[in-house]
Amino acid sequence: MRVSEGQLVLLVSEDDKTYLVQYRPGGKFVFHHGGITFPDELYFGDVLETTQGRKVMVLEPSTAELMIKVRRRTNIIYPREAGYIITHTNIQSGSRVVETGSGSGALTIALARVVGPQGRVYSFERRHEHLERAIENVRRAGLLDRVEFQLRDPAREGYPVGNVDLAVIDVPEPWTLVPAVRDALRGGGFWASLVPTVEQVVETVDALREHGFVTIRTVELLEREILVRRGKTRPRETMIGHIGYLTFARKLR
Amino acid sequence: MRVSEGQLVLLVSEDDKTYLVQYRPGGKFVFHHGGITFPDELYFGDVLETTQGRKVMVLEPSTAELMIKVRRRTNIIYPREAGYIITHTNIQSGSRVVETGSGSGALTIALARVVGPQGRVYSFERRHEHLERAIENVRRAGLLDRVEFQLRDPAREGYPVGNVDLAVIDVPEPWTLVPAVRDALRGGGFWASLVPTVEQVVETVDALREHGFVTIRTVELLEREILVRRGKTRPRETMIGHIGYLTFARKLR
Amino acid sequence: MRVSEGQLVLLVSEDDKTYLVQYRPGGKFVFHHGGITFPDELYFGDVLETTQGRKVMVLEPSTAELMIKVRRRTNIIYPREAGYIITHTNIQSGSRVVETGSGSGALTIALARVVGPQGRVYSFERRHEHLERAIENVRRAGLLDRVEFQLRDPAREGYPVGNVDLAVIDVPEPWTLVPAVRDALRGGGFWASLVPTVEQVVETVDALREHGFVTIRTVELLEREILVRRGKTRPRETMIGHIGYLTFARKLR
Amino acid sequence: MRVSEGQLVLLVSEDDKTYLVQYRPGGKFVFHHGGITFPDELYFGDVLETTQGRKVMVLEPSTAELMIKVRRRTNIIYPREAGYIITHTNIQSGSRVVETGSGSGALTIALARVVGPQGRVYSFERRHEHLERAIENVRRAGLLDRVEFQLRDPAREGYPVGNVDLAVIDVPEPWTLVPAVRDALRGGGFWASLVPTVEQVVETVDALREHGFVTIRTVELLEREILVRRGKTRPRETMIGHIGYLTFARKLR
Predict the structure, then answer these.
(1) Cis peptide before C101, with omega less than 30 degrees from 0?
(2) Is B63 within 8 Å of A92 when comparing Cβ atoms?
(3) D195 and D86: one domain?
């Protein structure tokens, strides 16, 4: 697939370092293995040579890599939790989704790739500097056509949209958003939230129950990388022990 | 959201039993809490009453529930692995994907919901009875417009399509498909496969390396349900210990 | 090793069923593969034949099997948590340990095997029927010489012993025992407790902090069985998702 | 408990750094918070003040801390696996155990504390520098009275002892030791081995089966630390993803 001008490419060096870079014909990128100048015609899967004679692979980023490589100040990144949200709700090509807060836009990117140009992600954020960065990150990923960002605290002001299919909540106090989400969701619509601590989960689940949400369910995910080498296959010695607890629920009519 | 004729609804009984049923105005459904007759106008989030005076919620199924509730003979179901595939490859609204084998169509459903009507899933299966069931399950889920099924063994015959974005492999010998997938994928395209045993992973990774695939990575996922009740919060005592190992790779040009 | 009269043996049938039985020369044991009569001379590792011509192995039980096979009404069994306690405290041959409550005596057995005949386990239980059963189970395991049982609630009455090396707490409200344990432990002595819920852990840790305990640490353990068969090696599909949270602490002088 | 001359104490600084130090009256210890001089009379649970006016707790080390803090070149430490071995075999006060290899003596320490002065650990190591270090570490832990070290490769030379209760194997090729262990174990005796890779497990289990061992079982353990702070309780973000696979078996007569 030919890379379009402005599209993000994942550069992978010989020593497996990765860089997410915007492609411009004639654009330059310099790193610890030397520099490259992008050719006028570039395809995913190409291998370029640096000024030091080292090889660089030009790859299409996965959704996970787009999420992990966004410019951000926050530490939390969670492609596997995003994937779990995608298959454990109703989201699909064409869905209308509200997201609170925007954070660095990482989760926004995962949702926007699924809803597609016919769908819509409404993303709300109450901190101005986060919103700016999220917009810039989603723009770089080429997905701004299907995302509407707004500086707003839906816990106090409610959502300016209604009848949405899914609400994804990624703020420290999800329980404050339950009434607003209830108003914004259509009948049968889904709630999905992520928090790091047990006490936040308990508050959230209590609020969901009080407001009549049903099929409430909380899970956590563990991911283990397996180092596969014939004769020496074993799990990696380090792993991430905790990202957060995912809570799902549905609204009755 | 109003339920259309023929659409699948998830019925949830008072005792949390769930049933995936096709909606027909005037259609009947009988279960251990009595019977219901579907009204002419039905909305997701409605609550119906059975002939025994018990309540039944009418909910929109999640992708996971569509996957789990397909008619099948095989035991393996894996919404969380499907979610991980979705966020750790390039799949998105509009993608062109090959799937081998179709199995019961569960994974096909998850992929088809993401690629949307502009995308395409080409699903190959070598066993006739599996193919029939997969087609029926995808049809029931309302996604047959974007899936092309074919009775074929791509390991021997190759893929009849090319330049695809992603190949998802769910057969016992993924390594036999590596050359065919290599031909079918475009540059930078993704490989994703799932197998239950370590030895299968080793064979698969070896074949991917031999055929020049890059960024090869294997993971397994663990999922824990948390029972959230104020004062009594704890993980569920039982959990699934193993589904399989996911392997990802990319093709160079 | 020759089996002594009265010693517990683990019988393993051809289909891997296990039975913990007390050996008596001439004693009989009947199960689904027929009956056996114990010979006058029996050794661990012997294979007997049943009246139906099936084989039965006579094995020495592991500590875990002694724990799991005690006569009990409670569900919680935790050889792996017992092992973790043993290596993460100061317990060793010769130690003096208090245990509260006795439960079915399973944990008592694990502790008693380590402290040996020179050590001592003081085991307290407030429910009479539990105490009776624990005593019987420890007697059957041949360890009653080093265990002193007492019907007592140390939360209200304190411990009748002092200067102990370790306190192991297995009751629903460990925090009620913190002051009594503080009095009973010698300087540098260890606290180890096990509870199933997060809220219990929080209460326990708070109480330990308030009463000056140090090096407080909480862990949970997950255990996965691997089915090892050449060419088909994989983790078992089911596993125990949760037993409880272990909390450790030490007393200053 | 009064600390004896030569006994190991765990020093814990105000910032939770830990040091395992041998106590000598009048002995000095200097670290980043200043220096301390050990008093003539020292008790576990004492708090000393450094020359910089900082506090240091004097604690009795747990078995795990004795294991982790041994002087060593190898990376692998596994108090939780040691605990699992202790409760899933027949080891107890008075047992006779063979260990191969000695490594840094960490596992030797855990076994020696359980078998007590009436028991015996026979520890074999084929590399001279390892043996030296193991002896030194076990001596420092005050357990040399019950351990017999020998420079020997039992895979080639067999074991010089027989009729042992348990064999613990911690070498890269456990399968080479199966025949020798079979000769050394008494009927009903236990095998316990630990290896990091799947292929090693498969070899080991195959050899055990071939040589008639029974009740063969393989497990792996995962440990998660929980950070318990009221209102902010959650698992630690990092964890150890893999230590190794434990395999257990028993010998028939």
Answers:
(1) yes
(2) yes
(3) yes
**How confident is residue B100, by pLDDT bands cut at 50, 70 and 90?**
very high
CATH number of the structural domain spanning residue B128: 3.40.50.150
Instruction: Say how many C-beta atoms besides its own lie within 10 A of residue B232's C-beta.
Output: 13
Q: Which two tokens stand for residue C16?
A: 């891997």
Q: Is A142 on the interface with B (CB under 8 A)?
A: no
**CA C153 distance to own-chain centroid:** 20
**pLDDT band for position D70 (50/70/90)?**
confident
Average confidence (pLDDT) over C180-196: 97
Q: Which residue type is seen at C13? A: S
Inter-axis angle of helices B79-87 and B106-115, nearest 10: 30
The per-residue pLDDT for range A45-86, each reduced to its tens digit, is 999 999 999 999 999 999 999 999 887 766 566 899 999 999
Interface chains of chain A (3 or more CB pairs under 8 Å): B, D
Residues D36 and D90 in one domain: no
Cα–Cα distance measured from residue D140 to residue D144, given in angstroms and rounded to the nearest whole number: 8
User: For B142-200, what is each residue's pLDDT tens digit?
Assistant: 999 999 999 999 999 999 999 999 999 999 999 999 999 999 999 999 999 999 999 99
More confident position, A5 or A74: A5
- Give A212's DSSP letter: T
Rounded to the nearest integer, the mean pLDDT of chain D is 96
Same domain, B185 and B168: yes
Question: Which residue, C61, C83, C100, sits at the end of a domain?
Answer: C61
Shared domain for B109 and B232, answered yes or no, is yes
Angle among Cα D181, D185, D187 to the nearest 5 degrees reads 135
Please report the ipTM that was assigned to this predicted complex. 0.96
Q: Which residues of B touch C238 (CB under 8 A)?
A: 238-241
User: Are B242 and B146 contained in the same domain?
Assistant: yes
Domain that holds residue D44: 8-61
CA distance D191 to chain C (A): 11
Give per-residue pLDDT as tens, D17-30.
999 999 999 999 99
Measured in angstroms, the CA of B133 and the nearest CA of chain C are apart by 25
Looking at residue C76, what is its pLDDT?
63
Query: Closest Cα to residue B141, out of B91, B69, B79?
Result: B69
> What's the pLDDT band for A1 if we cut at 50, 70, 90?
confident
Residue B227: CB atoms within 10 A of its CB come to 15
The CATH number that applies at residue A24 is 3.10.330.20
A176 and A232, same domain (yes or no) = yes
Do D82 and D183 sit in the same domain of this protein? yes
Whether residues D240 and A238 touch (CB distance < 8 A) is answered with: yes
In total, the C-beta contacts within 8 angstroms joining chain C to chain D are 247
Is residue A233 assigned to a domain?
A: yes
Question: Is residue A107 a part of any domain in this protein?
Answer: yes
CA distances from A93 to A152, A169, A189, B106, C108 (A): 26, 20, 15, 17, 59
Residues D142 and D211 in one domain: yes
Per-residue model confidence as pLDDT tens digits over B46-99: 999 999 999 999 999 999 999 998 877 665 668 999 999 999 999 999 999 999
pLDDT, greater one: D88 or A74: D88
DSSP secondary-structure letter at C189? E
Enumerate residues 41 to 70 of chain D having a beta carbon within 8 A of any beta carbon in chain C.
Answer: 43-47, 57-64, 67
Q: Is residue C2 part of a domain?
A: no
Q: From start to end of B101-184, where are the E strands?
A: 120-125, 147-151, 164-169
Tokens of B200: 């299968």
Which residues have CB under 8 Å from C189's CB, separation 6+?
Answer: C90, C164, C165, C166, C167, C250, C251, D44, D45, D60
Q: Per the structure, how many domains does chain B have? A: 2
